[in-house]
């Protein structure tokens, strides 16, 4: 079931420190193309007496392309799945780097298989419930969602309005301290240190911080997106923005 989706990479936290995290925007469901009877596992919200999430086998008969709406994501399962996939990917990348002609010196500690196994085993013990994943509710307002994502996805690490004071040598900016309830806090740095914090979040040339996957991936978008658009409700029509002259004579 190919799904629609985008992801956005952010490397900064509110205080400009390095805090790499990824935002995923995914569709509440996916496109069914097969005409066969397909049997898959669906997770049910209500829990059994033993506290585990109940599972139910669901059979779907599809005679033509169909959009299957699915707004529930099993949070606990997703956390563990994300953790396992990320760790496996890191292991592969580390091993590939160690086999290269000029491996990164910082990764040489993993040249012993026992060292790598011990490191990731300890990581799993530290995060026994999986890595942190936040899932927001399904969004219904298309225009508001697109506007919010458009502003948030490519926003800079710091907006000018958060800079409260600048003396030439020192700079004071405001950020939200989420560790203490999200209250606003003022932080002062030397200008050179502030610049250092800021520029390390500039991505390398040609590095894509926004990527598309599923039926929005470049290699299949032309083939599948048209089918999905026909099956889904059309977005509401939006009037074109008035010109400058029209705004001046509107009243």
TrEMBL record:
<feature type="domain" description="Transposase IS801/IS1294">
    <location>
        <begin position="8"/>
        <end position="39"/>
    </location>
</feature>
<dbReference type="GO" id="GO:0004803">
    <property type="term" value="F:transposase activity"/>
</dbReference>
<protein>
    <submittedName>
        <fullName>Transposase</fullName>
    </submittedName>
</protein>
<dbReference type="InterPro" id="IPR007069">
    <property type="entry name" value="Transposase_32"/>
</dbReference>
<dbReference type="GO" id="GO:0006313">
    <property type="term" value="P:DNA transposition"/>
</dbReference>
<dbReference type="Pfam" id="PF04986">
    <property type="entry name" value="Y2_Tnp"/>
</dbReference>
<feature type="domain" description="Transposase IS801/IS1294">
    <location>
        <begin position="71"/>
        <end position="222"/>
    </location>
</feature>
<dbReference type="GO" id="GO:0003677">
    <property type="term" value="F:DNA binding"/>
</dbReference>
């Amino acid at each position: 079931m190919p799904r629609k989706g985008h992801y956005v990479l952010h490397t900064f936290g509110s205080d400009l420190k390095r805090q790499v995290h990824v935002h995923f925007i995914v569709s509440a469901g996916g496109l069914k193309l097969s005409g066969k009877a397909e049997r898959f596992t669906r997770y049910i919200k209500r829990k059994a007496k033993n506290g585990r999430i109940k599972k139910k086998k669901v059979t779907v008969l599809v005679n033509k392309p169909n959009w299957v709406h699915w707004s529930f994501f099993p949070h606990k399962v997703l956390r563990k799945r994300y953790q396992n996939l990320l760790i496996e990917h890191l292991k592969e990348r580390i091993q590939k780097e160690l086999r290269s002609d000029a491996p990164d010196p910082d990764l040489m500690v993993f040249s012993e298989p026992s060292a790598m196994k011990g490191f990731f085993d300890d990581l799993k013990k530290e995060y026994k419930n999986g890595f942190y994943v936040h899932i927001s509710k399904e969004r219904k307002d298309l225009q508001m969602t697109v506007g919010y994502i458009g502003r948030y996805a490519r926003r800079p690490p710091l907006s000018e309005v958060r800079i409260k004071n600048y003396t030439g040598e020192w700079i004071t900016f405001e950020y939200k301290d989420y560790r203490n309830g999200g209250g606003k806090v003022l932080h002062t740095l030397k200008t050179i240190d502030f610049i250092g914090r800021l520029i390390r979040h500039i991505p390398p040339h040609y590095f894509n911080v926004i990527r598309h996957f599923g039926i929005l991936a470049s290699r299949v978008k032309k083939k599948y997106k048209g089918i999905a658009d026909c099956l889904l409700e059309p977005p509401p029509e939006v009037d074109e923005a008035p010109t400058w002259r029209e705004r001046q004579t509107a009243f």
